Amino acid sequence: MRRIPRRSASRDTPVYQTRTRDILVRVVASFAAEQSEPEEGEYIWIYTVEIENHGRETVEVTSHRWVVIDAMNRSEETSGEGVAEEQPELKAGEAFRYSQTATLRTPSGSMRGVFHLVTGDGDSFEAEIPEFSLHLPGAGRVVN
After folding, report:
1. For 47-72, what is each residue's pLDDT tens digit?
2. CB-based contacts of 123: which residues, under 8 Å, 6+ apart?
3. Helix (H, G, I), strand (E, B) or coil at 38
4. Residue 43, Cβ density class (10 Å: 0-12 exposed, 13-18 middle, ≥19 buried)
5. What is the pLDDT of residue 144?
6. How far apart are CA 42 and CA 62, in angstroms?
7. Residue (of 54, 45, 2, 1) closest to 26 by Cα position
8. Class of the 15-133 domain?
9. Residue 2 has pLDDT above 70, yes or no
């Protein structure tokens, strides 16, 4: 793992973050207009997640769970091992960043979730992934 530069917020791309124990999770999402097909009800979002270990213990990300909610308040839950086909191990001060896509059937929605982590001592816990908005630029925002 290597130290990665911290993301900063801008007006068009807000940064969402939360801290559980010594784990900071930060998310930035953007609409992928070139990959989306709105007339077909397919809105593609690219989201980048950063997981930072601010503690002294080494942690391993063993699994994840996501909840995606669209503007019609329909939710879809997904889960799996690790993140981005890896089970990153983060020593003190290290961070891991990955990007993936999500597809919505509506122009707005949100995502949230948790990472399951295990320390070197075998202690397991869940680190919250902050809820973040998926709204088309310039579109009216819908509270889910």
Report:
1. 999 999 999 999 999 999 999 999 99
2. none
3. helix
4. buried
5. 42
6. 30
7. 54
8. mainly beta
9. no
**Three-class DSSP category at 144:** coil
Classify residue 56 as left (phi > 0), alpha (psi -120 to 50) or beta. alpha
Q: Give the span between the Cα atoms of 101 and 106, in whole angstroms.
A: 15
Distance, CA of 80 to CA of 47 (rounded, Å)? 17
Every domain of the chain and the residues it spans: 15-133
Task: Retrieve residue 35's tokens.
Answer: 């990959």
Q: What is the DSSP string of 113-127?
A: EEEEEEETTS-EEEE
pTM over 0.70: yes
Q: pLDDT by residue (tens digit) across 77-122? A: 999 999 999 999 999 999 999 999 999 999 999 999 999 999 999 9
